[in-house]
Design goal:
- By secondary structure, this protein is an alpha/beta fold.
- It has 15 helices and 15 strands.
- α3 packs antiparallel against α4, α6 packs parallel to α7 and α10 crosses α13.
- The protein is globular.
């Protein structure tokens, strides 16, 4: 039987097998991670609300089920997980990173949470996020900033920064995140973990509203390995009656096994729009070379995104925020962070013509991606243009001398939110400062298995420290 310290170093797949074989109990696993959280989380601030007593009670109930022969068929049986603080969880404080919801305790679980619990997951608590997930740096007025386990003075990314930091520090084997502009992939890249954004509609949508559609809002896994991300993704997968964009498709079976020599891969260093720091670009190009060594057909990407892609995305994002929170009264608005108030104000000013133009640009982004995927199977590009910057300094105003928008100008993720394509971020190396660099692997709509399968081959060819060197 593994020692307590060893339990937290095991993968989710390994833990699932040990629990299934009754070599370790659900309580032992839950207790081991709670002990590690107690020791390390105060310095990282990844988990903002811990529900230890309920988690232990859940683990005890699962152990009773196993003893009575009722444990079979639940893929996440006894596996601890944390959920982003945007995701409603019955009986657990869910603040959305906002003073407006500082004391909100949802009366029921989101459909996704119900699905994970039905598969036997043990929910330990909630992970820190910026207010409403509006930015790629994780801090808020309630809980403060989340630190990067690789360097505590650096950001963890966002908006699922708490989830990524918790996984990187082995506070949990995996975590749930959400992604409206890159919020799964950005912190995964920054913290050296795997983050997967499935095809839009594959996983139950927490928002279940029109505003999940502009731009596409996804939920998905953050994990230490592709296999662990795949395990959690399979538990999340499938349509729901309440999801208006839910895909009525059959659940795929396992990682895709398409021969590598038949896979056509295109590499783009910058998607033709973004300045990327030289050491980040170099690490990602070396990652592309791994695919060539694996036998894939690797070419430079023939991709030209519309020059107004950033402006269109920002208008869609402003309209989304204004649509959700623009009816708040003055007193409630005053509770929000200044940047969010500005987003709401700017969103209110967008007329239908401007909104329609943004949607038209999104169509053109889709068309550009469609034309690329008519020639190749996979697109590779950096996840972020820089690595984890200092908590105190804020986002870079420029990259390699080229000015960028500090809100969204330092990552290459949001075009895939405009289109809904499946994409995963995997660690591909270190920058000059010794911090993680992430590589995106994107595929055609509905070809999630091919993306996951190729990511697994890459991971096997280029092993990665699964836990940050705390």
């Amino acid at each position: 039987m593994p020692h307590t310290d060893d339990i937290t170093q095991l993968s989710a797949v390994e833990l699932a097998a040990l629990i299934r074989d009754r070599r370790i109990s659900c309580r032992e696993v839950t207790n081991a991670f709670l002990t590690r959280i107690e020791t390390l989380n105060p310095a990282i601030n990844a988990i903002c609300t811990l529900d230890a007593d309920r988690a232990l009670d859940t683990a005890d109930g699962l152990d009773r089920d196993i003893a009575a022969g009722r444990g079979a068929g639940r893929s996440l049986l006894g596996l601890p997980i944390v959920l982003k603080d945007l995701t409603p969880t019955a009986g657990i404080r869910t603040t959305r990173g906002s003073r407006l919801f500082e004391n909100w305790v949802p009366p029921e679980d989101a459909a996704l949470v119900t699905r994970l619990k039905d598969q036997g997951a043990v929910v330990l608590g909630k992970t820190n996020t910026p207010e409403f997930g509006h930015k790629a740096v994780t801090d808020n007025a309630i809980f403060g900033p989340t630190a990067n386990p690789w360097r505590l003075d650096r950001i963890a990314g966002g908006s699922s920064g708490g989830s990524a930091a918790a996984v990187a520090a082995a506070l949990v084997p995996f975590a749930e995140g959400s992604d409206g502009a890159g919020s799964i992939r950005i912190p995964a890249s920054i913290c050296g973990t795997v983050g997967f954004k499935p095809t839009f509609g594959r996983v139950p949508d927490v928002a279940q509203s029109f505003f999940s559609h502009t731009p596409y809002f996804h939920n998905g896994p953050i994990a230490r390995s592709v296999a662990d991300a795949d395990l959690l993704y399979r538990a999340m997968l499938g349509p729901t009656s309440g999801g208006i964009f839910s895909l009525p498709v059959e659940q795929p079976n396992g990682l895709a096994q398409k021969p590598l020599c038949d896979i056509r891969v295109a590499f783009s260093p910058d998607l033709g729009l973004f300045p990327v720091r030289a050491d980040v670009a170099r690490a990602c190009r070396k990652g592309a070379e791994v695919f060539a060594a694996l036998g894939c057909q690797v070419v430079e990407a023939d991709l030209t995104l519309p020059p107004d892609t950033e402006a269109a995305f920002l208008d869609l994002w402003r309209a989304k925020v204004a649509g959700l929170y623009g009816d708040l009264g003055a007193g409630d608005l005053d509770l929000l962070e200044p940047v969010v108030q500005t987003l709401i104000e700017e969103g209110r000013a967008i007329d239908m013509v401007r909104f329609g133009k943004a949607l038209k640009t999104r169509d053109r982004v889709w068309q550009a991606m469609t034309e690329l995927f008519a020639k190749v199977d996979i697109l590779l590009c950096p996840t972020t243009c820089v690595t984890a910057f200092a908590q105190s300094g804020g986002p870079p105003p420029d990259i390699s001398g080229q000015p960028v928008n500090p809100l969204i100008g330092w990552f290459l993720t949001y075009p895939m939110n405009m289109t809904g394509h499946p994409v995963i971020s995997v660690p591909c190396g270190l920058c000059n400062e010794g911090l993680p660099v992430g590589l995106q692997i994107a595929g055609r709509r509905l070809e999630d298995d091919l993306v996951l399968g190729l990511a697994a081959h890459f991971e096997a060819a280029q092993p990665w420290p699964k836990i940050a060197p705390l």
